[in-house]
Amino acid sequence: MIRFFVTILFLCVSSIECNLENFAKVSVDNKVFYVSREKVTFLAALRNCQEHGLVPATVDSYTENKALLSSGCLAAASGQTTTGTYLWLGYLKIQNVVHNLNTLLVPTYTNFEPGQPDKWEEFCVEMECSDGEWHDNYCDRKYNYVCQEPGKGTELPSESTG
User: What is the pLDDT of residues 78-106, one digit of tens each?
Assistant: First the structure.
């Protein structure tokens, strides 16, 4: 009996999913997204991802964006209409250039609405759930957010030793 309990405890401590009851899991291709059901500021979203052993989510393709739009947004809106629902993504705008927050590189895929990003004082990036388009926005707004499991494509580039 004690061995069984210790095994279950170990599995739960080593598994990301044990502490994610406030998230909806969205799998697409080889990536797993965790969409929050709570609304927080961008900074709180980053902290919450880290506290769960995750990293801020970045979207690498149309397929991933579409999956977040359909399944992720619906989960964030708790099954209600997705109009007025937004998701913080793992990008930050520095000197009017958007960067992947995990790698600090300029992303190869984006889905910004035409004319976006548009304001120097809006540094954070969100996805609007009514259409899946991205916008720069003020970081103190409270939105749902998306995390992902760390892995390929989320590491900082290594310094070259040349």
Answer: 877 777 899 999 999 998 899 999 999 99
Rounded CA gap, 65 and 73, in Å? 11
* Angle of CA points 99, 50, 26, to nearest 5°: 80
Contacts 24+ apart (CB under 8 A), 19-26: 19/52, 20/52, 23/52, 23/147, 24/71, 24/72, 24/75, 24/76, 26/67, 26/68, 26/71, 26/72, 26/75
CA 107 to chain CA mean position, Å: 14
Backbone angles phi, psi at 97, to 5 degrees: -120, 130
Contact 129, 77 (CB under 8 A): yes
Please give the structure tokens belonging to residue 118: 């548009």
Token pair of 32 as six digits? 């797993």
In the structure, how many helices (H) and strands (E) does the chain have?
4, 8
The half-sphere exposure of 34 on its side-chain side, counting CA atoms within 13 A, is 23
* Band of pLDDT at residue 1, cut at 50, 70 and 90: very low
* DSSP string covering 53-106: T-EE----SHHHHHHIIIIIHHHHTTTS--TT-EEEEEEEEETTEEEETTT-SP
